[in-house]
């Protein structure tokens, strides 16, 4: 089994131009599948609110939700670098609350790092969490927790003025002490510039090829999430269809008495006659 990555391994991979692979997982089986496949990192994303809890966005997700799911993922993936995603409201109010909640990911769910959304507006939070000795990942571009301010889940940095803001944010995040940065839904040329400019690893979800690795939402790539499919998703499987077909086959089997079969039964240990005698007692 491969040894669990550290933040230094991820930095080394950037230097060697070796791409890092990152998927989301929200529960024990998915964590285990990701580890068995040898992914470098797992994000327990607050996207769990949409992918496994059925919310319309990530805003309702709580710290307790994230801790519960992160614990399950860790049990399934004991040897994989796990990043806990700070949910909306867990770091916005104060630096103190941000540190307290970041600590929960490490203490209660054995996460290796935390991620939070935002650029220069969250610099004091990044500094405070880093000062607590925690590995922090930044996240800019399309930041779902502030999608209200963006007018929805919209790609970012497509004009030079907004791109300039993102470059300034990226630099500020690195200077604040973050050890990696995730770019979401921005043009590849901007991603390439930021990945070269920064010394920390820069990862993409919907932000193109030229950077240090890719993230994808497990529900999207596996076909488990049906509400929508962002343009940046590549579907590697249609597990949802596999599950629906399996349920249909089960329904058909039960209705037609093809399930259970003899091999699925617990056979009686006493004779048929003994059981008949027993049933007669109650007739
Ligand atoms: N299942 C899932 N996949 C995700 O990628 C994802 C989540 N959930 N939840 C949290 C955020 C929300 N994200 C989203 C959600 C929707 C689009 C989307 O539909 N985009 C459109 C329009 C883009 C635009 O107008 O700029 C697209 O065509 O891709 C993109 C990212 C990314 N994250
Ligand atoms: C969309 C990705 C980047 C994320 O933050 C999540 O999965 O919660
Ligand atoms: Mg998130």
Automatic annotation (TrEMBL):
GO CC list: cytoplasm
Cofactor (UniProt): Mg(2+)
EC number(s) reported in the record: 2.1.2.11
Residues that, per the record, bind 3-methyl-2-oxobutanoate: 46-47, 85, 115
Location within or outside the cell: Cytoplasm
Keywords recorded for this protein, A-Z: Cytoplasm, Magnesium, Metal-binding, Methyltransferase, Pantothenate biosynthesis, Transferase
Chief location category: cytoplasm
CDD domains in the record: KPHMT-like
Superkingdom: Bacteria
Cofactor binding note from Swiss-Prot or TrEMBL: Binds 1 Mg(2+) ion per subunit.
Molecular function GO labels: 3-methyl-2-oxobutanoate hydroxymethyltransferase activity; magnesium ion binding; methyltransferase activity
GO BP of this protein: methylation; pantothenate biosynthetic process
Catalytic reactions on record: (6R)-5,10-methylene-5,6,7,8-tetrahydrofolate + 3-methyl-2-oxobutanoate + H2O = 2-dehydropantoate + (6S)-5,6,7,8-tetrahydrofolate
InterPro entries: Pantoate_hydroxy_MeTrfase (IPR003700), Pyrv/PenolPyrv_kinase-like_dom (IPR015813), Pyrv_kinase-like_dom_sf (IPR040442)
Pathway recorded for this protein: Cofactor biosynthesis; (R)-pantothenate biosynthesis; (R)-pantoate from 3-methyl-2-oxobutanoate: step 1/2
Pfam families assigned: Pantoate_transf
Binding-site residues, Mg(2+): 46, 85, 117
Active site (UniProt): 184
Record's subunit section: Homodecamer; pentamer of dimers.
NCBIfam families: panB (TIGR00222), PRK00311.1 (NF001452)
Family recorded in the similarity comment: Belongs to the PanB family.
Function recorded in the entry: Catalyzes the reversible reaction in which hydroxymethyl group from 5,10-methylenetetrahydrofolate is transferred onto alpha-ketoisovalerate to form ketopantoate.
Protein name: 3-methyl-2-oxobutanoate hydroxymethyltransferase
Gene name for this UniProt entry: panB
